[in-house]
Amino acid sequence: MSTDATQRGGPLCAGELVALVDHKERRYLVRLTPGKRFHTHVGHVNRDDLIGQPEGSWVLTVVGHRVLALRPTLEDYVLQMPRASQPIYPKDLGALLVFADIFPGARVVEAGLGSGALTLALLRAVGPSGRVVSYEVRDDAAARAQENITAFLPDISNLTVRIADVYLGMEERAVDRVVLDLMEPWRAIPSALEALVPGGMFVAFLPTALQVHQLVNELRDTSYFRLVDTQEVLVRPWHVSRMSLRPDHRMVAHTGFLVRARKTSRRIYAEWEEKGDAVSPATLQGEEEAPPAQDGLTT
Ligand SMILES: C[S@@+](CC[C@H](N)C(=O)[O-])C[C@H]1O[C@@H](n2cnc3c(N)ncnc32)[C@H](O)[C@@H]1O
Fold first, then answer.
1. Across-strand partners of 257?
2. Closest of 110, 119, 104, 106 to residue 152, by C-alpha
3. Hey, which residues does 216 pair with through a beta bridge?
4. Of ligand 1's atoms, which has the minimum distance to the CA of residue 165?
5. What is the chain's pLDDT, residue by residue, as a tens digit (299 residues)?
6. Do the beta carbons of residue 201 and residue 260 sit within 8 Å?
7. Which of 89, 158, 211, 234 has the CB geometry, 3.0–4.6 Å to 206, for a possible disulfide?
């Protein structure tokens, strides 16, 4: 059995994945295989000692150190799972779910599958009534990712993996979100336009500002994407103890940028364009210079 976020609670089971935490709060991901030992810096633990124990139990290693057993969080898992390519880090995964407004029941197309970190986060957010379709060009990456995903979420009936180049097109239609983590997401704009519902969202994670610039320009050039915006997530951990309260000396300085845009209705826009009423993309780009609109609900 694998760890499944939907099956939390109850005693730890044979075959389940647990996070063992030592006295220095180092975490080790361990499968509770009966009859096996797990070796840590502070002596080994018999996995049988944990099977049937409640989550949060402590066990002693053979040399008498206490080790805590918890079910791993998505963050624990993503940071330690084997990699086929650079996964999106937890700080960006969390922000991306809200930035892209991934909701229960959403239909999401994703590319590339990579190591499966983003896919795991998307699958949990869309839930059993939603669907994630993930494109990946590399067979080996797709195989690795599917192993990673099922080791944490055994029920992946809401996932479809397509070994295909997303730049050549998306088979799906009436999609709520297109979420891309690959080098040239602007090459997927035409197929995303076909796939997305009006009001749907195009989201990309990009490591460099040059990629962001090209993507934003190309999204605006289509005339059909609006509310194009870009964010970067900086997380500063703090050191908190009785005698000290300060930011950590180290932090992750850069991972990537998030870019999003909403698809507007092609039909209405095209009608206006024919009549010559359409606001040109150039004028719309000039809107950036306008003062920011007042936020808030109108009555
Ligand atoms: C940075 S990794 C994605 C990591 C993934 N988001 C995660 O969190 O684990 C990029 C992946 O996109 C795949 N890829 C690149 N171009 C692609 C394309 N045109 N269509 C589908 N997949 C592509 C690569 O093979 C690679 O596995």
1. 206, 232
2. 119
3. none
4. 20
5. 444 544 578 999 999 999 999 989 999 999 999 999 988 888 899 999 999 999 999 999 988 899 999 999 999 999 999 999 999 999 999 999 999 999 999 999 999 999 999 999 999 999 999 999 999 999 999 999 999 999 999 899 999 999 999 999 999 999 999 999 999 999 999 999 999 999 999 999 999 999 999 999 999 998 899 999 999 999 999 999 999 999 999 999 999 999 999 999 865 666 666 777 655 554 545 444 444 555 555 54
6. yes
7. 211
pTM, full prediction: 0.89
What distance in angstroms lies between residue 133's CA and the mean position of ligand 1's atoms?
A: 13
**CA 108 to ligand 1 center in whole angstroms:** 15
Would you say 260 and 202 are in contact if contact means Cβ atoms under 8 Å apart? yes
* Domains along the chain with CATH numbers: 5-72 (3.10.330.20), 76-287 (3.40.50.150)
CA 166 to ligand 1 centroid distance, Å: 10
Mutational test site, ligand 1, from 182, 211, 258, max ligand atoms within 8 Å of CB: 182
